[in-house]
Write a structure and sequence with these properties.
Blueprint lengths: L7 E3 L6 E5 L4 H5 L3 H9 L3 E5 L3 H13 L4 E6 L1 H13 L8 E6 L5 H5 L6 H14 L3 E11 L2 E3 L1 E4 L1 H11 L5 H17 L2 H6 L6 E4 L2 E2 L7 E5 L21 E6 L3 H6 L1 H5 L9 E6 L1 E5 L4 E5 L2 E5 L2 E13 L2 E2 L2 E2 L1
Parallel strand pairs: 2-3, 2-4, 4-5
Antiparallel strand pairs: 1-6, 6-7, 6-17, 8-11, 8-15, 9-10, 9-14, 11-12, 12-13, 14-17, 15-16, 18-19
Length: about 325
């Protein structure tokens, strides 16, 4: 797996941190008092708002912009990040975009892990706020988002990726343990030729065009893309995520169930799958066409495509990090 992008340093000004909190995130439901603690840690360096809807997110982002806040902190899980960035990038302003600070608050926190952000949200926010108050430089990484149909995110997948997530949510108990058990169930079902694995790994029938060049016709288990290395549970299939600027890593997996199961160790270690198992590319645009509607995922959120969609590389944003514990590197 390639090293993360070089760290750039910028100096932020006082009083410019706006925090968006999803009150329905896993952490907030378990600990509603976290909202007040985030506000206390931030103090006069900015303000914290809890949003109940997408429309309210847009309203708060406009307020932050009018107040000149240059750091946008987002507390929540992968879905909250996806929704907030989709609103931010859909506002159509010509003004500079804020630097993003992620405060992990979800179940899996795959996006924040991929950007080197781990730890207690109050400690992370406190570390950034203290540097802002002192006028000290903040480390940043830069990373593009993916965009399709007015949505923005970091991880896309159809086929098996979407089917796995549908089964995961159907359990009614989303957690890392549930995801791990579901993966184990899938592998066991593969080994015995069970119906469950056939449903999860049912091949996607479609046409895939990568930067204007069609892939050879194949029944694909999944077409999946990302600008971060990890897909969850430590599996890092997107080892090419940082290979070229303004491109994303792309995989079209066509390995059969047993062959795919045999590749899981390599995928977990961030190694390429062995030849004859998948198409691998870096791309700026991918068009997927099918003869029937299909499900797809962006950052853990499920959607339905009406036979075709186009995935494109999105803007390159700045993110505060990486962190070591609660300390900025």
């Amino acid at each position: 797996m390639r090293a993360p992008p070089p760290i750039n340093y910028t100096l932020q000004t006082m009083g410019d941190i706006g925090v968006i909190v999803n009150p329905r995130s896993r952490q907030m439901r378990r600990d509603p008092g976290r909202l007040n603690r985030l506000a206390q840690v931030l103090g006069e360096t900015g303000r914290v708002v809890a949003t109940q809807s997408v429309d309210e997110v847009a309203d708060r982002l406009r307020e932050f912009r009018n107040e000149g806040m240059s750091i946008l902190a987002i507390h929540g899980g992968d879905g909250t990040i996806h929704a907030t960035l989709s609103v931010l990038l859909g506002m159509g302003t010509s003004e500079p975009l804020p630097t993003i600070l992620f405060l992990p608050g979800g179940t899996l926190n795959t996006i924040t892990t991929g950007l080197g952000v781990r730890g207690d949200p109050e400690a992370l926010l406190g570390a950034v706020a203290e540097k802002v108050r002192r006028g000290e430089p903040l480390p940043e990484v830069e990373r593009n988002v993916l965009q399709l149909e007015g949505r923005s995110g970091f991880i896309f997948g159809n086929g098996a990726v979407a089917s796995f997530l549908e089964a995961y949510y159907a359990t009614g108990h989303p957690s890392r343990t549930t995801a791990a058990l579901l993966l184990a169930r899938t592998v066991c079902s593969v080994l015995v030729g069970g119906r469950f694995s056939r449903e999860i790994l049912d091949p996607f029938q479609g046409r895939v065009v990568v930067d204007g060049n069609p892939w050879p016709p194949r029944a694909l288990v999944t077409v999946t893309a990302a600008t971060v290395p990890e897909i969850g549970l430590g599996f890092t299939p997107y080892y090419r995520y940082n290979e070229r600027p303004d491109h994303f890593a792309l995989l079209g997996i066509y390995a059969g169930p047993l062959a795919l199961a045999s590749e899981l160790g390599r995928i977990w270690r961030g190694l390429p799958m062995r030849p004859g198992k998948c198409f691998s590319a870096v791309a700026k645009e991918v068009r997927i066409e099918s003869d029937k509607p299909f499900s797809y995922v962006i950052d853990g959120e499920l959607y339905k495509a009406d036979r075709e969609l186009t995935l494109r590389i999105g803007p390159r944003l700045r993110y505060i990090g990486p962190f070591r514990g609660s300390v900025l590197s």
